[in-house]
Design a protein that fits this description.
The complex is a heterodimer of chains A (261) and B (302).
Chain A (H helix, E strand, L loop, with lengths): L2 H13 L3 H27 L10 H7 L5 H17 L2 H19 L3 H5 L5 H34 L3 H7 L2 H26 L5 H8 L4 H11 L7 H25 L2 H6 L3
Helix pairs in contact in A: 1-7, 2-4, 2-5, 2-7, 4-8, 5-7, 5-9, 5-10, 7-9, 9-10, 9-12
Chain B lengths: L1 E10 L2 E11 L4 E5 L6 H8 L7 E6 L2 E2 L4 H7 E4 L11 H11 L5 H11 L15 H13 L5 E5 L7 H16 L3 E6 L2 H7 L2 E6 L1 E6 L1 H9 L1 E7 L4 H8 L4 E7 L2 E6 L2 H14 L4 E7 L3 H11 L1
Helix pairs in contact in B: 3-4, 4-5, 8-11
Chain lengths: 261, 302
């Protein structure tokens, strides 16, 4: 077994025994997958034609092929899909906060750092241990949503707008980029605190841009479309590079042993 | 086995280890003594490549610190100040993880071997978090031995253990000493150092002294012999003081306490002189200064 695999195995064996972590990882995908499906199911039965509350640019995107009610259905489910993007942010934060701060407080890091593992192997192992469940849950949740939506939506054009290239890009590319950012924010925060709950709560600051996007779209200030998603991916990539550099600098043996509080 | 030359570690303006030069021989148990904050743990961390030295050089097992760090980590075992175990994992799982990280070939076999060695095999499925302090320490020692390291760094191995657990750990150190491993032992326990170590280094940022426990005592206090007599008075004391090889002597009740360099050579002459003057010699014994006396004297001088 290589060392990265060993670290992943250790992280999962240790962290998933924590009920709070397990609950977060299991409950969140269930909730975020079920909510848009429930809305689709409820709205699917009572799709009216009233779309007067929708932001005009969104209405424009729907075109003439969808009724006002169907457009409203797409808009509402889109909001939930934005919340769906919380998963690649929250799950890694919870895992790495408990893993890193937990190891720090129980002084498990020093024996681990004394092994012949390289810093890169250690950080990649820990990062993957946090990212794989997050990305896996996001992708699995979206797959369930896609199948469920196909069964619940009567107009195929509504389905095409729900499972469109923008959301595939969001789930497939932006999600993992968000997970990388979340892991590094968690490492940075974990290096400064000694309680996993504090690390988790402070690291949740990473969700603010996503929540801002959610409310801005709800208020009609912005429209989350393909251009927006591409821009988000580009900005996230830059942020990730910066955070990875900072995270790696903080995750050096000497820094951990002498500077982490 | 370990060669240290002018090793210095500074944290900002604070010098943790100052210009340390030291050699530890193969198969030796080397005790590293010093008060809290003296630089013992920092030295161990430098030698195990956990922190880099500010200046100076060190080699461990022929490998150079700063250049061959991964190879050094592969060849040494370390027992850190706290056991640092994964409490939610079983004893066996804890060791399996580290056996994989140390690239042990027969992971299951080696884990079983060290668990049996320390008497933990029957508790292998128990969570480490449910272990007593002594058992946790034993498990941490198992972890340090997994990859059969030639050099073992033990940082306060009996700290916080009850006397029974501490004895068990000490007995085990004596046992692995017999297997020819080099052991670098940081300890506050002077009695432990006295019993286990071939040589002792005393550090307080810089190295104050290095020698065998016996030589340290002799260097600081010389050797002292106590002659128990049925009756002793000032004339008996004057007789002993008059002998040319006696450095100092005093009378305590019916005992004459004499300082001299080579008791093995001169004790018969002293006994003869005492008997010739009619003194009844009941016992002759050497007064051993404790390592604590040596340590406190060194600290007071520095």
């Amino acid at each position: 077994m290589n060392k990265i695999q060993t670290i992943i195995d250790k992280e999962w064996a240790e962290v998933f025994k924590n009920r709070l972590v397990l609950f977060t990882i299991a409950f969140m995908p269930l909730m975020f997958t079920a909510l848009p499906l429930i809305f689709l199911y409820v709205l699917g039965k009572e799709v009216g034609n009233d779309a007067s509350d929708l932001p005009p640019q969104f209405l424009q995107l729907c075109g003439e092929q969808l009724t006002g009610g169907e457009c409203f259905q797409v808009f509402l489910v889109n909001q939930f899909l934005l919340l769906f993007m919380m998963m690649p942010l929250m799950i890694p934060v919870v895992i790495s906060a408990y893993s890193i701060v937990g190891e720090k407080t129980t002084r498990c890091l020093e024996p681990l750092l004394a092994t012949p593992i390289t810093t890169a192997e250690l950080i990649v192992g820990k990062g993957l241990a946090a990212a794989i469940p997050a990305i896996g849950a996001t992708w699995a949740g979206f797959a369930v949503f896609a199948v469920g939506a196909r069964l619940m939506v009567s107009n195929p054009l509504v389905y095409v707008r729900l499972v469109d290239p923008m959301w595939l890009m969001a789930i497939g590319i932006v999600g993992p980029l968000m997970a990388v950012a979340a892991i590094n924010v968690s490492i940075i925060v974990s290096s400064r605190v000694s309680d996993p709950r504090v690390a988790e709560q402070v690291s949740m600051v990473i969700m603010l841009p996503l929540l801002a996007t959610f409310f801005a779209q709800l208020a009609g200030v912005i429209l989350v479309n393909m251009q927006f998603m591409m821009l988000a991916a580009g900005v996230l990539l830059l942020i990730d590079v910066g955070l990875v550099v900072l995270g790696v600098r903080l995750f050096q043996r000497e820094t951990i042993l002498t500077k982490w509080k | 086995m370990i060669q240290i030359r002018n090793l210095t570690k500074k944290f900002g303006g604070l010098t943790a280890v100052d210009n340390l030069t030291l050699d530890v021989k193969e198969g030796e148990v080397f005790g590293f003594l010093g008060p809290n904050g003296a630089g013992k743990t920092t030295t161990v961390r430098m030698l195990t490549c956990l922190v880099g030295p500010t200046s100076g050089q060190a080699t461990v097992n022929g490998l150079q610190v700063g250049r061959d760090d991964t190879a050094i980590r592969r060849s040494v075992g370390i027992l850190t100040e706290t056991p640092g175990l994964y409490d939610r994992l079983s004893a066996e799982k804890n060791l399996t993880i580290f056996a994989n990280l140390y690239e042990v070939k027969d992971v299951a076999g080696q884990v079983e071997k060290v668990l049996r060695l320390l008497g933990l095999w029957d508790r292998r499925d128990d969570l480490a978090g449910n272990f007593s302090k002594g058992m946790k320490q034993k498990l941490a020692i198992c972890r340090a031995l997994l990859h059969e390291p030639r050099v073992l760094f033990l940082d306060e191995p009996t700290s916080g253990l009850d006397p029974e657990a501490a004895k068990l750990v000490r007995d085990f150190i004596e046992d692995i000493k017999e297997h020819g491993r080099t052991i670098f032992l940081c300890t506050h326990n002077l009695d432990e150092a006295d019993r286990l170590c071939d040589r002792i280094g005393v550090i307080k940022q810089r190295l104050l002294t290095v020698d065998t426990p016996a030589n340290l005592r002799n260097r600081l206090f010389g050797r002292t012999v106590v002659f128990h007599l049925r009756y002793a008075d000032e004339s008996t004391l004057a007789l002993v003081r008059g002998l040319p090889f006696i450095k100092n002597a005093q009378r305590v009740d019916n005992k004459i306490v004499a300082g001299l360099d080579d008791p093995e050579a001169h004790n018969p002459a002293i006994v003869r002189a005492l008997v010739e003057t009619g003194a009844d010699v009941q016992f002759v014994g050497e007064l051993k200064h404790s390592l604590e006396d040596v340590y406190l004297a060194l600290m007071a001088n520095n």
